[in-house]
């Protein structure tokens, strides 16, 4: 899979919390299923009136889920989402004719469409959804330009044609029902086929699509499987029995799962957006406050090499104007002028890097690749000082939203600071370790650890303030820039002690939002760094 396709993936990796919630929900469904088993074949009386309420509730859940999935597709343009959204929309459209033709429900409207029509609509609903999920599981992860509204209209037209065809050929429908409540033996083919499709879908989703959305789709299919067991097997296929109604409740739960997940993720996105905006406002205020001191500092930093250049130029002229010119002394003074010129250029280049316009553009990024690139570049200079840079991390981390230039500069700054700390420390293991992990609550965590002399506690508290530095001749702006960038990305940065020697600089960034581009196994960070 190419790097651009990797960046299109916006799904969360399946976290332990999600697995725990999914496992707990599955156990609860199984427990309720076991509790219902002894009563599944008991008949109920006069419960037909509840069928419209059930159909309306299910229609609302499926229609809202389809709308959210189509909206997510419009933002991400990923083909699997289109199939999943279409499956929910088709199921919702089949509910109305199923309820309207249900025996004994709308008797006052003279809507008797025949004994087999309701079962035929149930068959279409039962088999269509796992087929759409199968397409979702097998669809390639690629961006497409298909209009979501056009697909939704096409699904509506297709459902309308099927409804009209079912009603038109109602006299030729297979004998699925014996009477208004009892099924024929032929109906047993439907739940068996549906259960087989559910099983195939679950296996494919777990095998090919390791994402949060796919996990919850598996729970949906598991709930629908329990629904089928209650309705068609334990309930004997008898309509309006206790098992039949219990199965319908499982269907309601199944249809609400993805909706709740999408609502939760949408809320989380808004919270993260608000946090990012607030962080950017705080960062802007801090930058404005720092600019006053920065302007004076820039003048001071540039004035120093300029003054030194003038002094050395005067010295060179004096050595050359002597009766016996001292070429060696003049050459030394000129070399110092060159060094001071490079120093002044470094100050200007650093400021330009911090405030250049291109660093404000945002995109979906593979942070592991940025870490590997920054470490590889820094390793070339570190080898001259006998310093080893090791990159460690998980095999998979989700993408983040940010600016590659800014984050690369942050990583280079932290890694180079760590290298400086190690090479000036007493003789011990000269090693800098960069580690990339995902935190339990979803953020991506990067830490840069060194084996240097460490940082005093009183200095660590204000290390990210402007003009605070522990390096001789340092400007004290690098770590302030790192904090401004990380906080502008909605993250946080801090420093801690490294046991037994050195310091560890940490920063964390929020990951991108949920999508269906399920993460396959990616190369580890170590492999990318090689």
Automatic annotation (TrEMBL):
Pfam families, A to Z: HATPase_c, HisKA, MASE4
Transmembrane segments: 20-40, 52-72, 79-100, 120-139, 148-169, 189-208, 215-236, 242-263
Histidine kinase domain boundaries: 297-513
InterPro entries linked: HATPase_C_sf, HATPase_dom, His_kinase_dom, HisK_dim/P_dom, HisK_dim/P_sf, MASE4, Sig_transdc_His_kin-like_C
EC number: 2.7.13.3
GO molecular function: ATP binding; phosphorelay sensor kinase activity
Alphabetic keyword roster: ATP-binding, Kinase, Membrane, Nucleotide-binding, Phosphoprotein, Transferase, Transmembrane, Transmembrane helix, Two-component regulatory system
CDD domains associated with the record: HisKA
SUPFAM superfamilies, per the entry: ATPase domain of HSP90 chaperone/DNA topoisomerase II/histidine kinase, Homodimeric domain of signal transducing histidine kinase
SMART domains: HATPase_c, HisKA
Enzyme class: transferase
Reactions it catalyzes: ATP + protein L-histidine = ADP + protein N-phospho-L-histidine
This protein's name: histidine kinase
